[in-house]
Amino acid sequence: MDSLIQYTGIIASVWIVSGIVVASLFYPGYSHSRQFCSELGAFGSPTQKLSPVINNYPLGLLFILFGYYLISTYSLHMPTIVIGIMVITHGLCTWICGFFPMDADPYTTEPSMSCNIHSWSGMIMLVSFIVAPIIVVFSSMYPFAVRVFSLLCIIGCFYFSYRLSVAFKARTIPGTYQRLSYGFQILWLFVYSWFVVS
What we know:
This protein is mostly helical. Helix content is 72%, strand content 0%. It has seven helices and no strands.
């Protein structure tokens, strides 16, 4: 079991991309460029029930298991313990985002309680995977290449988060920039996970 748990970060990185693609196949007319990933599980969407089952719930478990692996394996290294806590936090919030759907209209001026919970959980998810690579950047335990890569992923995430904000206000292609922003975080997780188990 331990040998499998150490690969859960890598598995999660691949799973999230595959899960979004698969779920979108059951949503007629879904646009990856114009719609958010969370719209797959939004109230009233064709995949409201399906998306959390194949995305949020298994992904949350994978994140939590990987965070547990980091904490238990590197129990004498505080920076890695904090990274593990951030990964577990990301997993818990992934569950919350699945349990509390966003509203069907992302531009609604009066979001429901469920949508507010979803949005705040999503914000915590974003922050948790900013804090984690920042810790790597400033930790001498990690090789220089891993620290530089982590910094580049942070910059990429911030840049495309800004582009996402602009695209959302302009109602153009926020989905593209959301995927790129979160994509840098998932790319970081994949490379970091590969490093710690190699």
